[in-house]
Amino acid sequence: MALALTLHQIGVPCMVFESVPALQPLGVGINLQPNAVRELYDLGLDAGVLDGIGLQAREWALVGRNGNDIYAEPRGLLAGYRWPQYSVHRGQLQMLLYRTVLERLGPEAVLLGHRVTGYRQAADGVTALVETRDGRRIEVPGSVLVAADGLHSAVRAQMHPAQPPIQWGGAIMWRGTSPGVPVRSGASFVGLGSMRHRVVLYPISPPDPKTGLATINWIAEITVDNRDGWTQGDWNRRVALQDFAHHFDGWNYGWLDVPAMLRGAREIFEYPMIDRDPVPTWVDGRVALLGDAAHVMYPVGSNGASQAIVDARVLGAAFVRDGVGPLALQAYDEQLCAPISALVLRNRGAGPFGLLGLVDERCGGVFDDIDAVIPAAEREAFMARYKAAAGFAIETLNAAPPTIAPGAHVR
Known about the structure:
Layout: H1 2-9, E1 16-18, E2 29-32, H2 34-42, H3 47-50, E3 54-56, E4 59-63, E5 69-74, E6 86-89, H4 90-105, E7 110-112, E8 114-122, E9 125-132, E10 137-142, E11 145-147, H5 154-159, E12 167-180, E13 188-194, E14 197-203, E15 214-223, E16 237-238, H6 258-263, E17 269-275, E18 283-284, E19 287-289, H7 292-295, H8 304-322, H9 326-348, H10 354-363, H11 370-373, H12 376-390, H13 394-399
Parallel strand pairs: 1-7, 4-13, 11-19
Antiparallel strand pairs: 2-6, 3-6, 4-5, 8-9, 9-10, 12-15, 12-17, 13-14, 14-15, 16-17, 18-19
């Protein structure tokens, strides 16, 4: 949807094929980093719009298993960015983008119930091979095909038929939302625990004026032996609280009662933390991969959705510069494939949560004075390296010109 809006902005007609018969606001919370929010602002989706589906983040914090702070920093505008960071409900963001596409491009621009199963190329174009929900097979010609079809991308499978299977490192996540009083700054992202046993939480709505309760998005996570692979069958499934809550018995810190938070969820889903090994290129002639189809990554750095939005904008800028064809796709690939593939592997190694690993190694996770375990300068340098790798270092992002200049069009 971000790519469709970008193409409309630069004057390129497009068609979106969506496999589901009806879009629904599914999922739980995600974060949009300032580099992605900047791009949404440039698409006309500014704070006046985004404040309606989420909350501007104020803090990012890691807390040890004993409740003591490991690291905390301001986020978004409070950190000095020119754009905020947002905590939003994934489904609400998706529906916002979808409604905006329909408004700007027209309802005929999105074909629901149409799944792209592959492609066929010629020197002057590419044909998308499409299956409909009623079993029809159709072929749609175009100048380029961009596959944003996720973890199980059929286009990526054709482009890289020998790619390794989905990679699971042993982490299991249970995810839900619960009503609760926001902790710390009132808009804080908090990671609590250790590398192999932790809870992450953040509000995705402002507090209700009457009750003072916000919607708190949470992820409870443990890491287990993965030698037998993922044996649950489903990649996400609804589970009961008693299936996992015992892992977090006693996690009550006064300012945060984890067992009570878990009990407050109406629905809980279980997911393995998975990714795919990077591929050497996201492009085959007139076909490109984008978003999770290109770089599905562990959700430890809050940048999977953000990177998909950035992908769309970088690709749009390449079209403006090089025209809608293989040259632009190649430029997009050269700019993003190698560094974002490195980010996939960095996140597999725990991303910013790697600080929890250092605490585990140096003191077994229990400490009174974090400076005696990891000096402040070392903690700050660790986070600065991650921000630079993920594309949202403050000074660099603030100084960068717009990805797509105002008024730019494909000639």
